[in-house]
Design goal:
Length: 491
C-alpha cells in the first residue's frame, strides 16, 4: 500500500501503482490540508466575495458573476462542456497515471476541494476503474482541460470507463464497484480539470520507456561492435575524460564493461585505423541522450508534485490567488527535448543496421542472407528501420514553439505540451522497434563470427533474445520477430 501525500511522489512509485496495481491510501496530514483549503473556500462564499472560477464564469466569462444557487450547476456544466476530446483513447496505463497525478496534486491542499473528491479518485485507482480519455483536444494551457474533463466525468457517473477488461458506461462500473457518484460543489470542477496531468502522465510513462530503450540501445550497440569487429580503443576513458561530459564517460565505461572479454572486437590498426561515426561516436551521441533524459526526469518529478490549478487557495495566508500554474510550458519543452534525444538513438542505430547488412561496408554475407540472391535476409528490415527513423524526424518537430490563442484571446499563449508528450511516446515506440531490428541483425552477425567468441554480457543477451527470435536459417516474415523482440525489450 502506497501512501499519497502530494509531496514525494516519484517515478518509481508511479511505476508501482500504474504497472503493478499497488493500492493507494491517503495521508491523514494531507487530508487535513485539503479540509483546511475547503474551509477557506466556504468562508469566501459566505462573505459573498467574487473569486474566479468559484462564483464567476470561466476563461472569457471570468467577468460574469454566478448566483449562489447556480454554483453547483456551474461546475457540472464546466465538466460536461469541456469533455470534448477526440480520437483514440489513451491507454489504461496513461488513464491510471492521470488519476494518480490528479489526486496527488489535490492533496497538496491548495485546490479548495472537499476530501470526498480525492477519496473518489483513489477509489477509481484501487478498483482499477480507468476513464476512457480521448488523446486529442488539449492545448496544454488552462491545463489539460479536455482530457481531465473526461476523467472528471467518471466521478459524476458520466462518460465511459475501462473496467474488468471491458469498456462500459461509468455509472455501470461504479455501481458494480459499489462507489457512489458525487455532486460537484463550488470550485471542484475547475480544480479537477485545471492542471497538466495528461501531458505529465504521458510524459512520465514515455520517460520510463525511454530509459529502458536507451539502456538496451547500449547493450545492442555493444553486440553490433562484435558483429562488425569494431575498434574498442574509441571507448578508452582517456578520450572521454578529455572532453568531460559525465554521461559520455559513463556510456563508454558501460560499453567497455559489456565487451571486456570479447574476442570479436579489435584494436586500432588491426583491421582498420578507425570506425565510422555510428560505432566510434556511440558514447558521445548516447551520452547526450542521457543528458536529455536527466533534464526531463527532473522536470517531471517537479511537476508530479506541483499545484497546477487556478485559483490556488492559501489558507494560512488567507489568500485566494489567480495565476498560471496550469500552463504546461515546462513539460512541453521537456517533451520536445525528449523527442529529439530519443530520435537520435534511432538515427544512429539505423546507420549501424546499414553497416551490418550492406556488403560494401563489411565482410559478412550480403544482407546477412543464408543464401544471398535466392534469399533476401535482413534487406527489408533496414527499410523498415529507415521508415521509422524518417517518421521520427517529423514527430520530433517541437510542439512547444506553436501557440494558437483560445477563449476569445483571454488565453492567448498555450504550450501544446500534450501534443509534445504524445509525439514523444510515439517516437519512443519507433525507437524501440529500430533497436530491435539492430539487435536481430547484430545477433545474426555475431553468430556468423562465432558466438563462442562473444563477451559474457553480449552472449547472455544473445541467448536470452534467441528465445523469442530464432536464428535466420531461411527467409521468413520478419515482422513477427521485430514485434517479439520489441515486446521483450519493453518495460
Amino acid at each position: 500500500m502506497m501512501e499519497l501525500n502530494g509531496l514525494d511522489l516519484n517515478l518509481e512509485k508511479i511505476k508501482r501503482v500504474v504497472y503493478n496495481f499497488e493500492n493507494v491510501s491517503i495521508s491523514e496530514e494531507s487530508l487535513n490540508d485539503v479540509k483546511k483549503s475547503r474551509a477557506t473556500v466556504e468562508e469566501y462564499l459566505d462573505d459573498h466575495q467574487i473569486i474566479y472560477g468559484i462564483n464567476t464564469g470561466f476563461g472569457k466569462f471570468s467577468d460574469v458573476e454566478i448566483e449562489a444557487e447556480d454554483l453547483d450547476e456551474l461546475q457540472y456544466n464546466l465538466i460536461l462542456s469541456h469533455a470534448c476530446g477526440v480520437g483514440e483513447p489513451f491507454s489504461e496505463s496513461v488513464s491510471r497515471a492521470m488519476i494518480l497525478l490528479r489526486a496527488n496534486a489535490l492533496l497538496k491542499g491548495f485546490s479548495g476541494v472537499r476530501p470526498v473528491i480525492v477519496e473518489r479518485l483513489i477509489d477509481l485507482l484501487n478498483h482499477r476503474i480507468h476513464p476512457v480519455i480521448p488523446q486529442q483536444g488539449s492545448l496544454g494551457a488552462s491545463g489539460d482541460l479536455a482530457p481531465l474533463a473526461h476523467l472528471a466525468l467518471v466521478l459524476l457517473g458520466e462518460g465511459e470507463v475501462f473496467y474488468k477488461g471491458e469498456k462500459m458506461p461509468s455509472a455501470e462500473a461504479l455501481n458494480q464497484a459499489k462507489i457512489e457518484p458525487i455532486q460537484l460543489k463550488a470550485k471542484e470542477g475547475l480544480a479537477l480539470i485545471n492542471g497538466t496531468q495528461a501531458m505529465t502522465a504521458v510524459g512520465v510513462l514515455a520517460y520510463i520507456e525511454a530509459e529502458q530503450v536507451l539502456t538496451y540501445s547500449e547493450k545492442i550497440a555493444a553486440m553490433t561492435m562484435e558483429g562488425l569487429q569494431g575498434i574498442i580503443c574509441a571507448f578508452d576513458d582517456l578520450i572521454h575524460n578529455a572532453r568531460g561530459h559525465i554521461e559520455q564517460r559513463e556510456v563508454a565505461e558501460r560499453i567497455r564493461g559489456y565487451l571486456q572479454d570479447s574476442k570479436l572486437v579489435t584494436k586500432q590498426g588491426e583491421k582498420r585505423v578507425q570506425d565510422a561515426y555510428s560505432l566510434r561516436c556511440i558514447p558521445q551521441v548516447l551520452g547526450a541522450s542521457w543528458q536529455t533524459l536527466k533534464y526531463v526526469k527532473e522536470k517531471l518529478e517537479t511537476e508530479i508534485n506541483a499545484a497546477t490549478d487556478n485559483p490556488l487557495i492559501f489558507s494560512d495566508e488567507g489568500k485566494v490567488l489567480s495565476g498560471g500554474n496550469f500552463h504546461g510550458q515546462p513539460i512541453a519543452i521537456a517533451m520536445d527535448l525528449l523527442k529529439i534525444g530519443m530520435a537520435e538513438v534511432a538515427n544512429m542505430s539505423e546507420r549501424r543496421i546499414e553497416r551490418l547488412v550492406n556488403p560494401q561496408l563489411n565482410d559478412l554475407p550480403p544482407f546477412l542472407s543464408p543464401e544471398p540472391g535466392l534469399q533476401s535476409g535482413a534487406m527489408i528490415m533496414q527499410y523498415t528501420a529507415a521508415s521509422l527513423v524518417s517518421e521520427n524526424k517529423t514527430l520530433a518537430h517541437p510542439a512547444s514553439v506553436d501557440s494558437i490563442p483560445s477563449s476569445a484571446n483571454q488565453e492567448d499563449h498555450v504550450s501544446m505540451g500534450t501534443i509534445g508528450a504524445r509525439h514523444a511516446s510515439q517516437i519512443i515506440e519507433n525507437v524501440r522497434r529500430v533497436i530491435s531490428i539492430e539487435l536481430i541483425c547484430a545477433m545474426q552477425a555475431a553468430e556468423l563470427r562465432g558466438t563462442d567468441l562473444m563477451a559474457d554480457a553480449t552472449s547472455k543477451l544473445y541467448h536470452e533474445v534467441r528465445s523469442v527470435c530464432p536464428s535466420i536459417k531461411k527467409d521468413r516474415a520478419f515482422s513477427k520477430d521485430i514485434e517479439n523482440v520489441q515486446e521483450w525489450i519493453k518495460v
